[in-house]
Amino acid sequence: MNKLNFLLFSTVACLAVSMIPHHFLKPIEHTKTDCSKYSQPSLDENGKPFQSFASFYPYYVCEHLKPGTKLFHFVGTGNLILLMTYTVISGQSLAASIVFGTIQAYGFAWFSHFMIEQNKPATFNYPFFSFLGDFKMFSEGLQGEYVLWQN
């Protein structure tokens, strides 16, 4: 299966999986963080750059308030995880899959920031923390921590 066909298949699979916590766990919150404390973009509540992932992650969640933004991130990250798994199992080129998977994941994420959330992705200022944040938010989405689908 080529990577584009796999991407189509995995996108549908990720959308289907994202509905499971929505229907069974019935999340009601968009965030558990007081987002009003972040008055300046890309800075902590004291107006300084983030120094740790633990201090960055609540801000990161605040940059994803709309369910559609979280859903696009969920699909992009899910696609990346599935593509890496498929690549390892099938023995295909890992380097090519990492590049393709990363491009599609950031494509989904950045589209949602510019078109849905209408903000600047945190990746531009904190690439490593944002990468980690994508996986943590994906995990929390699976656990029904946040609304991914708007009723």
Model description:
The chain has 151 residues and is an all-alpha fold. It contains 5 helices and no strands. It has helices at 3-24, 53-62, 67-90, 94-117, 127-142. Helix 2 crosses helix 5 (127-142) and helix 3 runs antiparallel to helix 4 (94-117). The chain is globular. The protein starts with a helix and ends in a 9-residue tail after the last helix. The model has no long low-confidence stretch (mean pLDDT 94).
Task: Throw out a few tags for this protein.
mainly alpha; globular; single chain
Summed up, what is this model?
With about 150 residues, this protein is mainly α. It is about 65% helix and about 0% strand.
How many helices in DSSP terms? Answer: 5
Counted beta strands:
0
Overall pLDDT? 94
Radius of gyration: 16 Å
What is the general shape? Answer: globular
Low-confidence stretches: none
Strand fraction? under 5%
**For the terminal residues, how far apart are their CA atoms?**
35 Å
Order of helices and strands: HHHHH
